[in-house]
Amino acid sequence: MRMRKWKIVRAAASLYRIRLLRLLIPAAAIGLIFWEAQKELRHIDFGRALHLFRRLPFEDWIVLLGVSLAAVASMSAYDFLIRRLYRLPLRLADTFRYGWIANTTNNIAGFAGLTGAGLRMLLYRNRQIPPEKLVRAVAYLSPLTMTGLSVLAWIGLLGIIPLRAGFPAHSWQFAAAWAVALYLPVFAVFQRTSWFAKWFRRDGERLSWRMIGYGIAASFAEWACAGIAFWWIARTVLPAPVSMGNALSIYTVSAVAGLISLVPGGIGGFDITALLGFQRFGFDPNLAAAVLITFRLFYYFVPWFIGLIMAAVEFSGNRYQREEKEETEDENAFNAWQRWWNWPGRIGVIGELGAWSLGKLVFLSGIVLLLSAATPGLWRRLHVAEEILSIPLMRLSLQLSVIVGILLVVLSRGISLRIKRAYQWTLLLMVAGAIFTFVKAFDFEEAIFLLIVAFLLWLSRERFYRVGVPVSREQIAKWGLATFLLVWIYDLIAANTHAGIIRHLPPNANIRWFFTPQEQRITIILGLGIAWLILSMLWMLRPVRLEDHGASLEQRRKLQAFLKDHRGNLLTHMLLAGDKSFYWAADDQVLISYAKIRNKLVVLGDPIGEPEFVSIAVQEFQRYADQYALKVVFYQVAPEYLPIYHENGCRFFKLGEEAIVPLSAFTLSGKRNTNLRTVKNRFEREEFRFEVLSPPFDSALIETLGRISAAWLKKRHEKGFSLGWFDKPYLQLAPIATLTDGAGNIIAFATLAPGYDEGTTISVDLMRHLPDTPNGTMDMLFLSLLEWAKQNGYDRFNLGMAPLSSVGQRQGAMREEKLARIVFQYGGYWYGFEGLRKYKQKFSPDWEPRYLAYPRGVYLPTLLLELVRLISRRPKVPAERKS
């Protein structure tokens, strides 16, 4: 048994292994770097570093910004290269713009270049470029982007730049430089092999030396220009001259450290290694920190800000929609290497690029406000501000800036999700934040930034259409933790920068303009409290909520009338239980029943109504759910409607099979049914009696059945959604079969569910029995039900689902279905999957598959756990049912 458990755990762990490694490797790398540099970091005065950065003359800022933007522009060589090699029908301006968006975003949030690759796929596909050609072009770039850094490493190791002087030969940085340098010859060897062609290129063709040479040249241009920008910033910020060779050696090893850390943008690894490098070349660590602040701002964040504006403008129209045909073509075009990284999911995430960009701009606006409040204003501006305004007003503006900053950070999520009220509040707060940050210290740069973002929001106002968004306790906890983290960072920055800058002020400076550490701490705590109070009020007073309290009595009566003219399905009777909500679509011609779990609306079974309107109804319901940022999942759907779900963007997972007994062929004769005949004869000899009762039922019978149900439950609570449960009004809607012993006592019962298909099918719904019933009681009950149904003119009898039956048996099945197969075989310790199928098989049923239809971008293992939780939670019905 332990071995079986271990196999299941090991199979489940394989689904998370890659994600876990992506977290552990960066964490270990950053931890190693911090551990080695902890002594050096203690001597850095970040207040002085920030002071040095802000003291740069305006003309130097312009030059450094120009050099940095030119370095970032060189990265577009990749895009011009694939435009020429693959003859992509793009204008030069479009090529440059797409390259800028992809490269700057990848600099900030990229993982091994995959973010940039996914963005290129999205942007280029928008120009109707065939997916197969796109994938070949992007796959061509993927292994080449690191070759330029490999060339730089070779330049350092060969002594052309003084890499050995800054980093000793025995250090781990030196070893990492060797590893990156060796990437170039290894790549040159393997790119000519058939294995490489199959892994990275779906067409199996080997790259020509000319194409490889072009790619290496583009990569080297990127890394070399970035290194030159790094050197130019260093020579401007540092008072002592720094040679290009020294700066390039520091940049090369720092870039290697950032690369192997696997952290987006090399944050942490790059910066700490660069600080160590500057110190080993004899530069003051505070000056080195100022260099890194300037480099991060001008090479990373300002270009990314420009890229976000480009992306927001690029997708300024209506919400981007992908055709299912295009989605399938893209997915078929991905080779094994790209599928291993789950690219289609990543492309689905960035499909809302315009809103995503606006959300990040709002997030940046909140961070800018907090950083501006945490760091002192420029002395000359403070002096002018005091002459025009009063210090209390300036301090009040600072406090309000903190509150607005925290609110914008939280509301940025609502902007990314296209929430209309989030847009309205954010627009108001952006304008208010611009006023407050200007009043507190004449910080016109931050004010202009906020007003630009506000203007972009206003231009995109039509895209904010959602009326609500699901908020779980986990999300509230995450945002609460994030804001507390912001408070801690704010306090850390404020405590260090204020003390550091005050020490370098002129003798005649008025320190009343600056907050003490205690005052800053009070400011941020008060700001956090007020911000969360405002957010709580907005949440509690939100005008539109998606209610999910089940179907009202009026709705259920409407369903009963609807079923007189329309066919139902095997799950239709459960809709009358009242725990599912109803959505009438296509002008009340189709009914969709659903329940909400977290950020999903789970539909039970197929929609009910005219088949020609089902696709329209599905689309209408998806739009309804989208207004609340919810995903639609269809649970236990039949094969007939799979093409409709596929056309509306769904993937499929086989849940199991339903056992349907064809009553015309059912018989107890024959050798294979010997055991069933024996059971039936034994119960008849012992004078057990089977009876099917029709509603209405008297209270005495209901009370008797209630005692049997309570004994069967053994103090467990009822389950719902796709399962029936003991509910007195629900029991009055269909016949009940009872099995009585010789003394006249009911020992077992089963509720029946009509199929609403003109008397063709009937199903068993709820089955309960006393704990001390004779062996074979359920067999007798099933046999009697089958004979009764056959005698009463039914054609089929539904025995219910066999979960995970016949799932994942084929070699080409999804890995999740293969895992489900292992659970089916070895999961008897938790649930008798295999035993349940064998039990139902003895009644000779036909097995009909049932599927889960879910949208792309939904992680299947998490979805399955949510479905288990949905079915296991206590059923809830509208209050009117309880009266």
From TrEMBL:
InterPro entries: Acyl_CoA_acyltransferase, L-PG_synthase/AglD, LPG_synthase_C, PG_lysyltransferase
Enzyme class: transferase
EC number(s) given by UniProt: 2.3.2.3
Function (record text): Catalyzes the transfer of a lysyl group from L-lysyl-tRNA(Lys) to membrane-bound phosphatidylglycerol (PG), which produces lysylphosphatidylglycerol (LPG), a major component of the bacterial membrane with a positive net charge. LPG synthesis contributes to bacterial virulence as it is involved in the resistance mechanism against cationic antimicrobial peptides (CAMP) produces by the host's immune system (defensins, cathelicidins) and by the competing microorganisms.
Organism classification: Bacteria, Bacillati, Bacillota, Bacilli, Bacillales
Pfam families linked to this entry: LPG_synthase_C, LPG_synthase_TM
Annotated GO CC locations: plasma membrane
Keyword line: Antibiotic resistance, Cell membrane, Lipid metabolism, Membrane, Transferase, Transmembrane, Transmembrane helix
Organism, scientific name: Cohnella zeiphila
Highest rank taxon of the organism: Bacteria
Similarity comment text for this entry: Belongs to the LPG synthase family.
Protein name: Phosphatidylglycerol lysyltransferase
Residue ranges annotated for the Phosphatidylglycerol lysyltransferase C-terminal domain, each copy included: 563-854
Subcellular compartments: Cell membrane
Membrane topology reported for the UniProt record: Multi-pass membrane protein
Main localization of the protein described in the UniProt heading: membrane
Catalytic activity reported: L-lysyl-tRNA(Lys) + a 1,2-diacyl-sn-glycero-3-phospho-(1'-sn-glycerol) = a 1,2-diacyl-sn-glycero-3-phospho-1'-(3'-O-L-lysyl)-sn-glycerol + tRNA(Lys)
